Amino acid sequence: MKIKKFFNFLILILLILLIIDFGNCLKDDSESSTETKRGTIKPTNSDSSSGMIDDVLILDSKSASGSDSSLGEIDGHRIVKCNGTQELSYEAGEMKSFYKESTPTVDPYTCGLTVPSRNSLKDALLSIDKCEDEDSCNGHKISCTEIEITNGEEGFTYGTFSVMLKPGNVPNTITKVSLVQMEGSNGQMVSDVYIAIYGNQTEIRYGYHYDGYENANTKFKSSRVSNQLFQSFTNVTIKFTKEHLSFYAGGQNIGHIASMWNKEKVATPPVYFRVTYLQNSEVGSNAIKTSLLPASAYVRDFNFVAGPCTDSDDEVTNWGSPKTYLDYYTSNCTIYRPLFVFNDTIHPDWDIKSVGNHRLQSIQFPRIGDNIEFGFNGGKNTIRFITTKPFPIYRHKYFIFWINGGDRGGQNLWIAATRKNHIIAKLNVNDYVIGGIQKNQWYKVIIGMKKFQTQQTNPKKTVYIDGIMFQPTYDGFMDMTYFDDLMFSNGSICMEKGNYLQIYSKGNFSEGMEFDKSIGNFDPRSTVIQYEKKDTIEYQIVKKTVLQVNFMNGSISITEYDGLQFTLQYIPNNGYISGGTANENQRVENVVNSLRLQLCLMQEDGIATFPCLSLSSYVGGRFPANRWFTLSIPWNDLSVDFEGASFGGFIIKSPDDMDPDVYQGKLYISQILATHYKPPPIERMTQGSFGFKLSWNINLTLLSIISIILLII
Predict the structure, then answer these.
(1) CATH ID of 124-306, from 2.60.120.200, 2.30.42.10, 3.40.50.720, 1.20.1560.10
(2) Would you indicate the residue range of the signal peptide (predicted)?
(3) What is the pTM (predicted TM-score) of this model?
(4) Could you report the per-residue pLDDT of 275-307, keeping only the tens digit for each?
């Protein structure tokens, strides 16, 4: 009897533990910010079609009608709901294109093009010529031509607008891509956002008008971009949101205007999407040589993907980079480890499917071990990472990957969340790399999964995905692109506060940390800007200044710690970041030049270095300025995450190709530590962020065994 009471008592204790454990499971899943609780929904296995890829993945009309219930009744062409309206997404080659004949109501004049008998915009010609008489050209001597893409009477909302363009190269002509407000707020006065490419000049202008007034007209001079534009078809893109405007040409970010930060009035939706070829009104029609007329420009493949009404979750803030990066590095950290899709090798549950050739290699643009090389040499080239175990689209907070532009750079890519042969939602990668993807440069790209917005007919139905795909935004040659370390994550991993190696803190280097080989202008005990009333390192950012710290007590193995942690503050030289248009005390709204500074770990000999990490590219393209910022960098991101790796110190320096006369500003460092990750939950150590609680199964097994014994007794 006593034994039975004892076992009853054990069963009661185990039941209590089970209830507590189950509650912790729900709590853990809630804290990891997943909309679907882990373990409560069993993912369905994908069928045989999940491994098949069409030339371009896109929902067909049958899928759009919601006939495929496994997709959560998603309509891939209506991917965003904005203020209650559904927006359309046009794909190159399949969009319904409209020419619209406009009327001469706006000075200098609006160009008209009669409605053609065809719907295709393949190599559509825009031509300007001498007018037979001034009446036919609204009082002008030179004609102009305009193509306008409409979305019926609704117009277009906020989003990303792209067009393949070959501008006219005749001097004193302009090829202009613009978003024009459908209804002017003041009669016939124009409100628009534009990129203007000037014929036979190394100049591109971007800006906007509001009620006919030119609020911003910024010149961007680049022979590389302009020459590329005139030689062949090149992508021109405008990202149009309530908070900011971003402008791209040839894959390069040519400018950014933080309109909301400036409190300036900008055009608002609905807008028309136009390309116009016209004379430069600043010089007059007589400046165009008649022998060069008629002059021509060409367009093809207009593309529009709707975006959120606002970018409150991902705007480019006054700290520099997209807010996703700020959230990732400064929000509550996580003890859960990321789930790698590719890390030197592909995860066993994942596979790579491509339209085009991909290969694993470590010769070109090496990081750690193998990376993935893939050529985007045409609009149909895609590379897709696909799993046999579909999962809820919002199970993880972030999707993270490294990308390198290779020998060419300037790639402009979509990243899409997919299921079977369908695109569920997609984003432009360049929206998360300020300045665009440059050649021979690795970027860490962090994308919040919440940005993959889906429109569901049944909001209670969970949307599953089984892959991530990259595809070009236009049909053009982009050359080889390189990918590495693709993963899902719930945030940066927490570092232990009490278990670390102190390298520098409170104005002093620790014993055995030598900086005698440092050169240039720096002060290890500066009082100019202190941190918690303690001295800091003051580093003048010029090419001749190099901070080198050697570990004299022996190298550090990566098995001893998990990464380095820096607490620092960047004080920019306003003249540098504004491109020479601002003085020291002037507030800079539109950053032209980002911080160019590298962190390089030295090998055990204290001389040679591992591949260097660009601090700006690590945080989205621009480093946070005028604020203290703690940056934890794991070994994997410092190119030393391989068996037996150790390092004997580190270097902070400008890139080798930096102009020696350029002064970028100051960097203050208050603390440098080698730190440990906080340990992951024991019950999920082997499962990453996909894991289920193993302790539940263990406790349930024990309960079953005790129950059997009790029955026998």
Answers:
(1) 2.60.120.200
(2) 1-25
(3) 0.67
(4) 888 888 777 667 788 888 888 888 877 777 776
